């Protein structure tokens, strides 16, 4: 039946999550260097993250079809924006990507919550979920900037950067991860009420995620340890 899960072998599932994590780490660590030279490579990384997310969990057949349709649409919009250099295409691509990645994050959290064992794949799911929160925060900031600057005509930056430089996506990415980890260096600050609201959402989401997920993982680990002790 189409509603049933198409089970992915545990080894392949672990590999898929490693691929997703590697793609996101490349985005976080190397996107500023890559994007300053060729936007093409940035879109390749985005596409890799989208494709890796589709096979990161044992989704039902129906869910995977939805993800394939949403992910495929997002990839098409990304490459349309690259070839036609339109901020509208970029906004549409980011909106699709935001909902797509939020969908993946929701299922990752649910998978970790429902699992009985704490194994390597579960740990990878938890780490990927945390990195996704930072990525989603960057997408929110970038979308808000496009709406304000290009659609509403508000010609002021969403964030303040030292040196009065106009922000690019890698600046939003950096700012989002500095916020989600509560480092708060102060070299970038929110410039208006909308940016402040998004920053509060990012910081709160990151801390709640860590608190709840760590508690769940520790609880599951201790529960399984007690079960093994009782059996012996």
Brief description of this entry?
Helix content is 77%, strand content 3%.
Helix and strand topology:
Layout: H1 10-37, H2 39-54, H3 61-84, H4 87-114, H5 120-151, E1 159-161, H6 169-180, E2 188-190, H7 193-231
Helix pairs in contact: 1-2, 1-5, 1-6, 2-3, 3-4, 4-5, 5-6, 5-7
**Widest beta sheet: strand line-up:** 1-2
The third-level CATH topology is Helix Hairpins
- The overall pLDDT, averaged over residues, is 83
Shape: globular
Description:
77% of the residues lie in helices and 3% in strands. By secondary structure, the chain is mostly helical. The chain has a single domain (10-220), classed as Orthogonal Bundle (Helix Hairpins), CATH 1.10.287. The protein has a two-stranded antiparallel sheet. It starts with 9 loop residues before the first helix and ends with a helix.
